[in-house]
Amino acid sequence: MLNKVLVANRGEIALRVIRACRELGIRSVAVYSTADADSLHRLLADEAICIGPAHPSGSYLNIPAIISAAELRGADAIHPGYGFLAENARFAEICEACNIKFVGPRSETIALMGDKVSARRAAAAAGVPVTPGSDGPCRSAAEVKRVGAEVGYPLLIKASAGGGGKGMRVVHSEGEVDAAYASASREAGAAFGDGSVYAERYLEKLRHVEVQVLADERGVTAAFPERDCSVQRRYQKLLEESPAPGLPEGAREGMKKAAASLVETLGYWGAGTVEFVYSGGEFYFIEMNTRLQVEHPVTEAVASVDLVAEQLRVASGEGLSVKGEVPARGHAIEFRINAEDPRRGFLPQTGPVEFYNPPGGPGVRVDSHLYAGYKVSPYYDSLLAKLIVHAEMREAALRRGARALDEFALTGLDTTLPLHLAILEDEDFRRGGVFTDFLEGRELTGDGAGLPRLAAVGRSPA
Amino acid sequence: MLNKVLVANRGEIALRVIRACRELGIRSVAVYSTADADSLHRLLADEAICIGPAHPSGSYLNIPAIISAAELRGADAIHPGYGFLAENARFAEICEACNIKFVGPRSETIALMGDKVSARRAAAAAGVPVTPGSDGPCRSAAEVKRVGAEVGYPLLIKASAGGGGKGMRVVHSEGEVDAAYASASREAGAAFGDGSVYAERYLEKLRHVEVQVLADERGVTAAFPERDCSVQRRYQKLLEESPAPGLPEGAREGMKKAAASLVETLGYWGAGTVEFVYSGGEFYFIEMNTRLQVEHPVTEAVASVDLVAEQLRVASGEGLSVKGEVPARGHAIEFRINAEDPRRGFLPQTGPVEFYNPPGGPGVRVDSHLYAGYKVSPYYDSLLAKLIVHAEMREAALRRGARALDEFALTGLDTTLPLHLAILEDEDFRRGGVFTDFLEGRELTGDGAGLPRLAAVGRSPA
Amino acid sequence: MNNGGEPKGEARGKALPLDDVGRLVELLAESGVGEIRVRQGELEITVKAKLEAAPVVAPSPVAVPAEPRVHLPEVVVPEASVLETQAEAPSTNGLHAVRSPVVGTFYRAPAPGEGPYVEVGDTVRAGQTLCIVEAMKLMNEIPSDVSGEVVEILVQNSGGVEYDQPLFHIRPEA
Amino acid sequence: MNNGGEPKGEARGKALPLDDVGRLVELLAESGVGEIRVRQGELEITVKAKLEAAPVVAPSPVAVPAEPRVHLPEVVVPEASVLETQAEAPSTNGLHAVRSPVVGTFYRAPAPGEGPYVEVGDTVRAGQTLCIVEAMKLMNEIPSDVSGEVVEILVQNSGGVEYDQPLFHIRPEA
Lengths: 462, 462, 174, 174
What we know:
The complex is a heterotetramer, with 2 copies of chain A (462 residues) and 2 copies of chain C (174 residues). With 462 residues, chain A is α+β, with helices and mostly antiparallel strands. Chain A has 3 domains: 100 residues, Rossmann fold (3-Layer(aba) Sandwich); 70 residues, 2-Layer Sandwich (Dna Ligase, domain 1), CATH 3.30.1490.20; 250 residues, ATP-grasp fold, B domain (D-amino Acid Aminotransferase, Chain A, domain 1). Chain A is 33% helix and 25% strand. In chain A, strands 9, 10, 11, 12, 13, 14, 15, 16, 21 and 23 form a 10-stranded mixed β-sheet that branches. The mean pLDDT of chain A is 93. In chain C, the strands form 3 sheets. Chain C has a 4-stranded antiparallel β-sheet, with no helix packed on it. In chain C, strands 7-6-4-9 form a 4-stranded antiparallel β-sheet, with no helix packed on it. A two-stranded antiparallel sheet of chain C has the order 1-2. In chain C, β6 and β7 form a beta hairpin. The termini of chain C are far apart. β1 of chain C pairs antiparallel with β2 of chain D.
């Protein structure tokens, strides 16, 4: 087993890795920016080292500082969490060069799957269905038109290096191609330093369904019950559940087999997620994330597995403790509690948390770096807490979710808590299987019964 | 399903029942004393009603006040939790007479099992092994001596109405019987208003193992994986785990079958626990608790069942959702976090909780009524929180427990948190299967690594 | 949480300007100031935030640490019971609240069809029965604990009452 | 349970000058004064600021809200970095700390076997190299940002340093 792991991240995911390390008897090293001196990941790790100023470019994205910290503290591995350097192939390569184990797949795998065009080719080569579209990058508007003539409109132009909806354009007819190609390419170049784009059939009424995979260096692989992440806002997931409600058994099986096949073809190791769109009874590969996902706990809940412990086991050269198709037990839902005010255009909120009392009781898990008095800074992402509920049936999980959200006491900042309560009251959502446009144009407001009451507790005489 | 349930309790167990009600769509009514006006069970229930002054005799033990509250609010059932009126046969009888469903077995069953002598007889009648001893109460020291001659010394004299170690005496030879009989009888009379005692063989090097059962009114029964509750201090359980480590399969099976047989013989319904001592490879019936136990969550964790929801289902006249021998998945441990200072003779602590941040992450459940600013009053029992951890193997659960205890931030009061950390470091405990005298004379101190650090968070500039 | 929908003194007339107090409390909470005091004629309202590092006033016999370390501002939670507590404080207006010693149903008259024990404006003596609170078929006669004038009846006939809930406001004899 | 915040104290007769109170509260909050009291004929209004305990010292660069609503007392976390931060406070003794701009290994000399850049007691000029901090085989020469006398060298040769860790104490030239 690894001896000492440096956690190159912050917030709840840094805590998640530190907790796994402690449970496995591995020493943990937290790195933190000057803005995070009072953060829980610094306080809970066995060691901590300040690596730079508040802005991530000088700290959590500062490769020399992180490698230097790992060398200073004698860490034999680095866990990148998600975001920041987690899918930075160069960082993984530098780790390899410095004889520090990168907890993730090989740098070449990261590079391969990080480029959407090469990832698409790899998927197709593994027999995984991909959306009809261009074989490689489209180097001109004319090439996009050729694809359009072949697969039909509407068409989606996407940045090869993309993510988060940047450099993306929907084109409804050939006449729109020139302008869309130019602007998508410009945006992609600005956002990713790589202006290349490709084109594929634009699917509507789609669900976002993904398959968590694990593989070790001996070639043992595991595919987990699928997660449905269709509740999104501007391509940002807000709520995830597993299994995907109402999905035909064939699609479920097909996705898991496709994901396993891709992992085997790639000689992948570590944790990863194969993302699909599901539309009109068919599923198509979107991309593969070569890292841990924010929403990994829903899989942990239904599959009774500790994905981070498995990652660390794989990185240690030990074998997986699971394999094959892992069955689901019950139903799990994750709610992302973000420091955003859903009533005011998701305006980011910063400042101190005044009162904090997360929910407890059966089937409730909270992953959060918050505490009363913690200051939410403007430098990092808005995720404050993840609430995960688990129950034997989806309906019971929904009710448990409402119960837990309702008693989640968090004052000082506006959050997405009331939005989640409103989602749980929405009939379409309760029925299950909503599309990714679910949140668009919907008036979702709700307060729950307990939220204001518990907020009042935070202000009652101490 | 029931429509509205009055929860005749306070603290974490009142919350537990209120949460179950909310998840089942049942309205909940909290009752509270004037000392509990700011307590979470009052705030989280759908309705709340003040029933009396701080002292339990005027509030949580005040049967007319509780029944009156139930009638005022139109509750169709009362859940008694544990403690207070949970095993008061008269209360159950009054509920029945008032057409309010008592969430528990029939009042006669409570009365039968509440008397140790009649419970012993009922167990023997169901073919459950009982400790060799007197058939009924011993009405004189001479009768005790007759039992001693038959089953041998040492002998244990116990109050028929007993519990918590009161009215109990160990007698090593016939010469000690007269004095012990007199004092045990006097103590029992003072404590329970009933001086009758009985005698049985005194077993040494014993473990406390118990079996959770459920039964519905149609006669369907379920027996759950056994719990080991041997870590006790003065007959008060401190830590419970399931399954019992290192128990021979035969004993495990035997206890479950015995418990199921007793439940069937009694025509029992609701939740209950059959308690055994396990000593020298044999197990013997001690008593049956005709209610929910504090430690029910360890069973919920390993059996993936919601015991309180099952209780409410049974009380509604619906069937159990489980039956037979329910298998265990993984290993669970509960730590009772009490407001007692283990370094100063378990001196009870009262006053305000200053900083409160319970642990999170995978496999961790916290049941607690605490929040920062909550005042622990001297009127009620010292249980502040229950931490339950669950993992695939006992060793992993132990490590997870240490991790979670270590990050449990609770300042303002001394608690049993450091004692639990010390227990987890004890070699005998780690090996598993300690006897009930485990804590006696052991110097168990420990601070954990994170405890002081996290306590400091509560004091750092906000 | 809901307070059971109990009537909490709408028939109050010109007793206490609780709405104003509520607004002052909100003002105090929102502003974070330490104290607000308003006096007008006979009326005086004082709203104070908790003094930092001052000893916490503990109604319970629990010992409070000399240095309370967590200070949440004292804000009156706008709940019936709290406001009632203020309303009946014998402080400024000298009214005394007769409270229910039991949970049950409030009856103003000894039996259906009979006249009520007392009306607003009546003068009562200490020990005189004011009402009945019925709990489990038991009729508990509730006596006044002071002599004086009945100023307000706070609960409607056959309404439910909690333990310690104010039932009558009495202006004690001088 | 929430009071809806609606003002509903109409029928009270002479209304309280709540707007005046509101303005006074604002004035108090903005002005930072301790107490405002207004009396006019029968009317008297007093507005006091909340008494703070000792001012909270926030070492972090994050802005502290003007009205901190949760007060946790200042307790020194017994950790090296915090103690260091306090130790190097330029406050009383007028010393200036030169801090490490990178994470790495601290070397006092340009190369093994060579003499150190500076010793305690040396006078240095702003811009003069004081040491090297090596990160990923890169030798970062760390210059002094003030001119003055080297009073203390805070890290041992070849020790690891964090970002922003004080390396030298310099007494700046007068």
